Amino acid sequence: MMKRGAIIVFEGIDRCGKSTQVQLLHDVLQKSRSVELMRFPNRQTPIGQKINSYLTDKAVQLDDHVIHLLFSANRWEARNQMLETIQSGKSIIVDRYAYSGVSFSAAKGLDLDWCKDPDRGLPAPDVVIYLQLSIEEAQKRGNYGEERYETVEFQRKVKDLYENKMKDPSWKVVNASQKPEDLHNDIRSIVESVIQDVEHTPLNTL
Ligand code: DGP
Ligand code: NA
Ligand code: NA
Asked: Could you say which protein family the record assigns here (predicted)?
């Protein structure tokens, strides 16, 4: 039987350097093995376009529960492709997943368990790499932008949820205040061993 691919999820507050690290990892893994990049929200689908309008246009009003379910639906619409990809032996690097879903919505005051429910049944990651950075350091990297959620107060709540409510055994916390090359090396050694071990690990669901 062919060895399945791994699901490698990246999480962190806005401005933690996640997108840079995702790209660096993708570039290096691509040289030696087959790997695919996915990011959530995927703003290309009809649901993703709705999410994009909510994030970029504060005049767009959607009930907090409704946008939560749309983010989750945006992950569900990628499920079959995810399963096919890993079953074909390719690994997937995923920029944000259900942990963003729960942390960003629970930060608004929604019930934690209610937030988790819609994502139950999605493919579970083999590893979650959490880029840990203080709010102060994130801010030093340039002011938060114009998108909804990009305020210091909100990011503080998101960080607290990530660090106190999300961690499960698949989580690896990395120090995102390091130089990008050093952080990349840390991430790479974690990922190499996960990809090695995946053979012996059944794919779970959230
Ligand atoms: P990004 O494209 O990675 O910058 O993400 C866009 C923003 O949306 C970012 O502030 C994080 C937030 N976000 C990502 N996934 C979810 C989700 O499932 N639910 C909510 N409420 N917010 C999310
Ligand atoms: Na963002
Ligand atoms: Na990002």
From this structure: Belongs to the thymidylate kinase family.
- Residue to substitute in 64, 67, 72, 96 for testing ligand 1 pocket (most ligand atoms within 8 angstroms of CB): 96
Report the pLDDT value the prediction gives residue 128, as an integer from 0 to 100.
98
Rounded Cα distance, 62 and 68, in Å: 10
Please name the CATH architecture into which domain 7-200 falls.
Answer: 3-Layer(aba) Sandwich (3.40)
Helix orientation angle between 152-161 and 98-106, rounded to the nearest 10 degrees: 120
Which atom number of ligand 1 is nearest to the Cα of residue 108? 21
> Ligand 1 pocket, 104 CB below 6 A?
yes
Cβ–ligand 1 contact at 155 (below 6 Å): no
> Per DSSP, what are the bridge partners of residue 91?
35
Q: HSE (CB half, 13 Å, CA atoms) of 191?
A: 28
pLDDT classification of 91: cutoffs 50, 70, 90: very high
Give yes or no for residue 95 having a pLDDT over 70. Answer: yes
